Structures are given as C-alpha cells and as structure tokens.
Amino acid sequence: MLKQLPLRFLIPTLIMAFCVLVSGLGYLVVRGETASRVVERSQHFVNMELNKLQGLIEFALHNDSRNLMRQIHAGKLSEPDLKHLALVHPSGEIIASTNQQDIGNQWRNSILDQYADTIQQALSQHRSQTRLVEQSNLIEGVIDVCSSDFSIGLRGKSCGFIFYQLDLSIRLKAAISGLFHQTMYIIGAIALGMLMLILTLDLLVNRRLAIIHQVLKQWRKGHRSMRIHADGGDEIAAIGQNIDRLLQKFAEDEQALIYSQRLNEAIIHSANFSMITTDKDGLITSMNTTAQKMLGYRERDLVGNHSPALFHDANEVTIRAQELTEELQQTVNPGFDAFVAKAKMGYVDEHKWTYIRKDGSRVPVRLSVSAIRDNQGGITGFLGVAQDITEQLKAEERLENMAYFDQLTQLPNRTLYHDRLEQAMFQAKRHDTAVAVLFLDLDRFKYVNDTLGHETGDKLLINVADLLCGCIRESDTACRLGGDEFTVILGNLHPATQQQDIGRICDKIIDAISQPMVISGHPIEVGVSIGVAIYPDHGSNITRLNKAADVAMYSAKDAGRGCYYFYSPGLELNLKH
C-alpha cells in the first residue's frame, strides 16, 4: 500500500504519523505525571485550607459564635471541588455540615464516625491529617480546632475538628482536559507543518523528480531524444544533471552497440563459414546465411526446435563418442555431448564431420566447436563454425592421385607399386603363399612413338593399361613404372600351381597386347616381353625381387620378344656374357 503512494505524500505522511505517535505516547506519559502533580497540589491545597479554616474557626470558638462558624462554612460551599465540609464543636456537636442531617448530632453518630482513626490522630497530634482515597478520587483532611476550657484547668483546652473532603476527579478532569487540548494543538500544528512540507516538497522536490521520472519513462519506451533539464544548484539538480549525462552516454553506447551488432551480423551472415549457436542444452539459438544454404534448412525450421544432431550422421556421432570416451577417460554419450565434450573442458574441438542436408545429400565439413561463456566464466551456450571441405578433399585426392598414380594411365606408379608389393609380400609370408612380379616392356613402342608422335604413343600406353587390367584378377595390381615399362603384382599364389597360374596370365597378357589396334586412325601392332620373379624363391626383398624380374624380362627380349621368362640364376650369367 505504502509503495503505491507518491513520495510527496508518503514522506510527510510517515513524518506526521511518527509525530502523532510520539505525541500520543507523550500524552499518555504526561497524563500520569499530571495526575500525580494534581494529587500532590490538591493535598497541599487541602492542608492550606485546613490551616485557614483552623484560624477562623478558633476565632469563632473564642467568641463562642456559632453563627460565625456557620457563615464560614456557608462561604466555602460555593467551591466546586468541595465534596464534604463539617465543623465539629469541642463538645462533639456538629455545628455545620454539607450533610444537613448530621447538623446538631454528635459526630460519633454521623458518617464522620467512619473516619474516627484519622480524626483521633489529628486531635492527639494537634496537626492536620490528609489522605488520598484512590477508589473514589477523594482527598480527606482533618485538623483540630481548640478553645480554652477553664473547667479542666488553667491551661485546659477543649478541641473539636474540621473535616474537609475534596473531590479530586473534578481537578483531574480539568487537568487532563487541558493536557488533551494541548496535545490536539500540537497535533494540529504538526498537521499544518506537514501540509506546508507537502507543498514545499511538491514545489521544490516532487515536481522536479516527476520530470526526471517522466523522462526515464519515455526512455523505456524508446524515446532517446528526451533530455532532463534540471535547474538549480541543489542535490536534485545535480542528480538530474548526472542522470542526463548518463542517458546521453547510454544513447551513444547504444548506438555504438547497435552498429557493432549490425556489423557483426553482416560479417557473420556474409562469412563463407557455417555458424550455428546453441544453448548449453543443445537447442539451436541462431544460424547464419551460409549455414542455411549449406544445410538447406531455413532459420525458423531449426532455431528453438532442434539440436545439431538433426543434420549429423548418427554413426559418426557414435564413433566420435567412443573416441572421446577413450581420449578424455570419461563417459561421453552419443548425441550433443559428442560435439561439446572437449569445449566444456575449455578446449576448441576441431573435427571432420558429415552434414546431412535437408534433401538427404551429404557434405563433408571441418567443424570447430567452442564454449560461449558469461562474465563469471559460466557456460551459456556453444558456437559451431563449419567449413565445407568438399573441394579440399578433392584436392587432397588429386594430390594423393598424383603422388601414387601415373597421371597418363591412372595405374599405380612406382611409389604405390613398392607399397603394394611390400603388403603382398607380408601377406605371403603370413599365409605361406607366393607373390609373382611381372616386368613388362612393350616391343616396337619406340618406333610408334618416333613415327606417329608422342600423342599417339600416349594413347597406345593408355590402351595397353586398359588391356593389362582386363587380363589380371581384381586382387592383382598393374602398375606403370615409366615410359613403356609396366609391372604386375600377382598375390596369393599357391606354390604347387604357381607357375601354371602365372603362365596362364602371361599368355593372356601377350595375346591381348599383340592384337592389332587402331589409334588415331593408325593401325598399330606391338608386342610385349615379360620377366617373372617369384617371392620368396627369387628374392626375399623388393630390391632383389625387382632385379630378378628385370633380368628375366631382358632374357625374354633376347629370346625374340613376345614371350615370358621365369627368373633363374643362369639367366643372369647369360646376360653378363
């Protein structure tokens, strides 16, 4: 309730409520003190009245004038707070009393008898006695009045008394009433002061604060042109001026931030990389234009609805999760964790993935994932930057092809030949089989190349490569070492039938290559000479095996070409001669 009150009302109201509370508490405290002072003063008043009356009554007794005593009594009856006044003659007779029935009676036979103790005390001590009767708010006083009585001696005295009863409630009411009125005057003055304070606050404070509040309210609505014009040299003017400077600085920073955001958005959307952000639970929160083009999804299809797992190959995710489990020595579950497990640990995780487009086609990417953190270092999400590496993989494939394949015939080159032969020899040793190496050299190739040109020669080599591949098994390897030299690796040969198997393939190759060909409109006939070396019979390593096959090939050429020879130590001796 108090929060809904304007300050110009709330502050004076709280001050006034405090002052009224203090005044009320003061009234209650002072009321008790006032009652005590009224009782004290009333007792003093009763004593004074008794002393005055004592002198007057004793004078009347001295003159034995009962009429004077009655006149004195009648003169006191006009006092409003007098409850009871009785004058008793030394003989015990009541001369005058507010209670008419008691006049002329002995005081012992009247209501005064109930005050006998106090009366006897006053008579015996010859001094006034007063007491407070709290139950009835009365002050009772007794004082002796004496006259000479020679009947009992030369200095004898006979004493009567004066009984005085004051109604204290009248005086208390008057005092409390006065105190109450004073309190009301004070509260009224406070109220008037609060009204003046409200007017002063409204004029000097609230109206100016209202201007500041209104400007801030308009700012929240987006009106950045609003300004606070605070005049004066007081604190409110200083506050208004400081807020106005802050607003101007905020507006400048906001414009700079908007420009920066737009610039960042332009950079992100124009970047040639797919950029996707997620929250810490894996839900996609944004994606740039490149990501939309790469995946074939629109932003509204994915943002707030899906995880990146939607466009990843599930098998790749499972395999990656297993790899990370072994690498990080902690369980990484298949799913979003497989993308961000390393990023959560503060690393930038870069890995090759396959994105699956909306149409089902696949695109290889290199994805870099990093964590997005707040000012306290807590993870709020993740950023994935992906690059389409299709062309890169093609280039790598081309480089690999250039490194391991003959660019003219697309057969394995010398490097890949050595690798394949080494693998074949390893398998042969493991399974106790044999490997054959065939060295082939085309007959009459130099004549074709010199007379018909290199272009025709190259086409001839390509044709020979195709024929060669058609003559061997799928598990065998045909290679071009350079020029018109070819090799064939025949693996998984059984020692018992190896020569028959090799001979059959060699005959097939010689027959295929010896057939007439037409290349670029030119009829061409060539032949081939083949040298054969067998592992492990003719060599335990690649160098010795190649040398043996080369010796056998030259022996085939010397034998008239168009044939094949198996290596034997005797062939090497014949070549030397």
Describe the structure.
It is rod-shaped, with a radius of gyration of 65 Å. The protein folds into four domains: 4-174, Beta-Lactamase (2-Layer Sandwich), CATH 3.30.450; 227-270; 272-391, Beta-Lactamase; 403-576, Alpha-Beta Plaits (2-Layer Sandwich). It is built from 16 helices and 17 strands. The strands form four sheets. It has a five-stranded antiparallel β-sheet. The chain has a five-stranded antiparallel β-sheet with strand order 7-6-10-9-8. The chain has a five-stranded mixed β-sheet with strand order 12-13-11-16-17, sandwiched between helices. It is of the alpha+beta class and 577 residues long.
Highlighted features:
577 residues, alpha+beta, Beta-Lactamase, 4 domains, five-stranded antiparallel sheet, 16 helices, 17 strands, 52% helix, 21% strand
What is the fold's blueprint, element by element?
Layout: H1 7-62, H2 66-76, E1 82-88, E2 94-97, H3 116-125, E3 129-133, E4 138-148, E5 157-167, H4 168-220, H5 235-270, E6 274-279, E7 284-287, H6 289-295, H7 299-302, H8 314-328, H9 337-344, E8 349-356, E9 362-373, E10 379-388, H10 390-404, H11 414-431, E11 434-443, H12 445-452, H13 454-471, E12 477-482, E13 485-493, H14 498-513, E14 517-519, E15 522-524, E16 527-535, H15 542-558, E17 564-566, H16 569-576
Parallel strand pairs: 16-17
Antiparallel strand pairs: 1-2, 1-5, 3-4, 4-5, 6-7, 6-10, 8-9, 9-10, 11-13, 11-16, 12-13, 14-15
